[in-house]
Amino acid sequence: MNEIDYKSDVKPTWCPGCGDYGVLNSIIKAAKMLSLKPENTVIVSGIGCSSNLPHFFNSYSLHSIHGRAVAVAEGIKFANHELNVIVTGGDGDGYGIGLNHMIHAMRRNVDITYVVMDNEIYGLTTGQSSPTSMLGHKTKSTPFGVIETPVNPIAQALSASATYVARGFSGDPGHLAELIKGGISHKGFALIDVFSPCVTFNKINTYDWFRKNIYKLEGNRTDDFTEAMKHAKETERLPIGLFYKTDTPTYEERDLVLKKSPLIKQDRVDNNILEKLMEEFA
Amino acid sequence: MIAIIFMQYVLCAWFQINSIKPIFWDKEAFFHILKYSLNSFICCMYADLLKTGGVLMVNSVKDFSIRLGGMAGDGVSSLGEMISKASVRMGLYTATYNSYQSVIRGGHVWYQIKMGVEPLKSYGDSIDLLVCITNDTLTYHMPYLNKEGRVLIDPMRIDPNIKVDESRLVKVPFLDIATKYSKNPIVQNTVIFGCVSRITGISWEVVEGVIRDNFINKGDAITNENLKASKAGYDLILSYNIQPIFADNIPPKKIFLMTGNDAIALGAAAAGCKFLAQYPMTPATSILHWLSAHSNDLNIFVKQTEDEIAAINMAIGASYAGVRSMVATSGGGFSLMVEALGMAGMIEVPLVVVDSQRSGPSTGLPTKTEQADLNMLVGASQGEFPRIILAPGSVEEAFYLTQNAFNLADRYQVPVIIASDLSLSERYESVTNIKFDMKIDRGAIATEGEPDFKRYEYTANGISRRSFPGMVGTIHTASSDEHDEYGKLVSDVLAGTPYGVSKRIESMNKRMKKLENFKKIISYTPYSVKKDNNNLIISWGSTKGVVREAIELLSKANLFFDHLHMDVVWPINGGAMLELLKKYENVYMVEMNYTGQLAKLITSETGYVFNHLMLKYDGEPLYPVEVYKHIRKVIS
Ligand SMILES: Cc1ncc(C[n+]2csc(CCOP(=O)(O)OP(=O)(O)O)c2C)c(N)n1
Ligand code: SF4
Ligand SMILES: [Mg+2]
């Protein structure tokens, strides 16, 4: 399949210049590199500009409700763990309303890949502060500036035991595609936080701002948790690249039932098993 | 006369020693028995000559009710379960109600067990035998004791300040006996188990079997001390020469004992449910427990989630991916699920949701029963979408309705809600008719590789074919946003355009149409005790048996009532319902809530206004006598 074959016939509806175009392209590139089969791939999203992405990609997809995409994706993966399950969404969706699910999915090490288009703003609802908006950021809902410490997605993921933690920039789709490819190939929960500028409502964290404030991690030891956490906590300049990767068994590999075979391939048990169970009630 | 009594005593003592032999044969025990035998001799004489003390007056009866009272932590419910299990193993029909509190230790808890030689309708409301583990049991429950009823009590525990008629007491030093065999005072429960079994006529073999099963994981030492303690209780009653309530020639039958939640879990397994996601909440929790315990045998994936929001969203994901999925919770958890319920409606993913209701609002009375969630279940989530609400009336019905729920969910691609409540979910009932032969209907499913697949095709009945990830050529997006036949959004750039507007109307019509045929086939056939009756009682869900029992009581007073138990609460077939209602002069609605929620729903669907509502919202279970009295009062 060529890159074009991974595009659906729905044209993206994002504002011209929106960072999310770059993310879509990177996902398509990664899919091509991995030769993902559209019928075996499911993209799940929540609600937000970024969460419209699945409509533009050629695969099964579930465009769910705000903040719940990770939970929906876990259900899909548990039902059929032979599928490639990718979650796409925004910073509000994932780090605000849906943060609880993300943390629990990480500690379960469910084998899904989570791409968060982090524009540090609520785009679809026309520009309120988000959990990653910087201190002092003046938005429609914080006209005097944000006074809460922002969520640090990388540190959050590391402390929640995510097994693949990376950050990319939608202005560098080649680099980002590699990170996404790594995340999909990784067995376990992968978070790829993506700086993806909202050109309409975030006039602070623009492409230029990001270019000035980010740098690429190179030669870092990605199996060293302490080093990863040190990079996650950097404030001077924001690192992009792979922070951490470790191999631990996935939930599907550990669960007694899922270990046997994908749930969808397991038939209802025979009546004799049910009848035997009845003895417990006798 | 004296001679007869003496012979009785000799026989009795011989039988005791004989039957004890296989269990233990030591000197101490022998003298212990001898001591009690002597007591029993005195007791027998006293009883037979003076007709008081110890001896129960109830002779062979059709049914018998026991109430156990104690403190949380006393093991009242496990004692109740042992007695109930023994009862069904004796071939007796059994029904229970467990009244407990939201504390782990202390307070007052009680357990009602009704046993009968014929199938029972409910746990009943009388007490033939009151078992007092604590003093306050006497205070709380004495007023409900039948005229002929007796109290089983530890003489060391009787509060001298409580005035009771001595002749109604059966005294057994539970704790004394227990401490003879064990360091653990909780063993008094097995002493009581032995006593109650002998009083009711449960054979020692059955008692022994139940104890062995109950302590199977506790090792031989603990099993044996419990057996000894129980036997001592059993033999002590034997020595009191109490005539057993039930004769020992009850025809053996295969009777199972399970709770409403067991039946729901078992029904789900039988229906081929593969996925349960749940967050613990009383009184739905034991569904999680049972399916977790058996997940590996049944190949069912069970997940305790971080909250109920995750639970339902996971289940929707799993169902979308093609496996039958269920969530179970109580009202509070259901409240959290509401948004996702609407998504299931919108993306047309089948889903079974169990709401085991408890007393609200808010955290309410967590261990008490109510049927006050109906308004929420009917209206939960923004916008309009079709849903089905089922309300099983008995444990057996819960088993079959749950299977039905899965078929309906798949057939109509809608959420199906099972409205249980604490009273049904947690009560044990004997069931005799459990068969695993219900056909599984997965509904309309696409074939792979068909050109131009429309997941949400506008069909005559509104039902379109599903496809699952992994199937080739049937790729689509399921979207919680409004969409067209292909699943493509009409919510953003197309919203408000002529195309968007027309698709919105068509998609709404398609979804809302799905239950039209189902609604038409819903029929209302009342249970009838007499032809051409003028009076009808309507109820829904767990109260079915209680209402039937009340109707029996009313019949005895020459007051005749038909009964409509609604197991499909929603949708309502307004035409059929109105036709039925018009046949009766008096219609009574019995509901466990403050506002008469089902009555109002029926009114909204039929225009019929109810004049007689019996509403109960004290958290306590409904009793037949209450319904009986209420109706008698209205009539007079
Ligand atoms: C339960 C609920 N609350 C609020 C909303 C409104 N809402 C839609 S998108 C959104 C925030 C989107 O922000 P983000 O996830 O960062 O996505 P972006 O648009 O920035 O890509 C909100 C609050 C909703 N759809 N559902
Ligand atoms: S509002 Fe911002 S996030 Fe949304 S599409 Fe436009 S640029 Fe992208
Ligand atoms: Mg955002």
Key structural traits:
heterodimer, A: Rossmann fold, 11 helices, B: 636 residues, alpha/beta, Pyruvate-ferredoxin Oxidoreductase, domain 3, Rossmann fold, 6-stranded mixed beta sheet, 21 helices, 17% strand, disordered N terminus, binds iron/sulfur cluster, binds magnesium ion
What does this structure look like?
The complex is a heterodimer of chains A (282) and B (636). Chain A is of the alpha/beta class and 282 residues long. Helix content of chain A is 34%, strand content 16%. In chain A, β7, α8 and β8 form a beta-alpha-beta unit. The termini of chain A are far apart. Chain B has 636 residues and is of the alpha/beta class. Chain B contains 21 helices and 20 strands. In chain B, α14 links the parallel β12 and β13. The N terminus of chain B is likely disordered. At the A-B interface, β1, β2, α2, α4 and α10 of A face β7, α9, α10, β9 and α11 of B. β2 of chain A pairs parallel with β15 of chain B, so a sheet runs across the interface. The structure holds thiamine diphosphate, iron/sulfur cluster and magnesium ion (MG). Iron/sulfur cluster (SF4) binds next to loops of chain A. Thiamine diphosphate (TPP) binds next to β3 and α3 of chain A.
Q: Summarize the biggest pleated sheet of chain A.
A: 8 strands, mixed
CATH uppermost class of chain A: Alpha Beta
Total DSSP E strands of chain A = 8
Number of helices of chain B: 21
Structural class call of chain A reads: alpha/beta
**Count of DSSP E strands of chain B?**
20
**Main sheet: strand order of chain A:** 2-1-3-4-6-5-8-7
Number of domains of chain A: 1
How much beta of chain B, percentage-wise?
Answer: 15-25%
Classified in CATH, the superfamily of the largest domain in chain B is Pyruvate-ferredoxin oxidoreductase, PFOR, domain III
Q: Point out poorly predicted stretches of chain A.
A: none
Major sheet size, sense and barrel closure of chain B: 7 strands, mixed
Mean pLDDT of chain B: 90
One letter per element, helices H and strands E, the order of chain A comes to HEEHEHHEHEHEHEHEHHH
Poorly predicted parts of chain B = 1-60
Distance between the termini of chain A: 59 Å
Give Rg of chain B in angstroms.
Answer: 28 Å
Backbone shape of chain A? globular
Shape by Cα distribution of chain B: globular
Small molecules bound in the structure, each named once: thiamine diphosphate, iron/sulfur cluster, magnesium ion
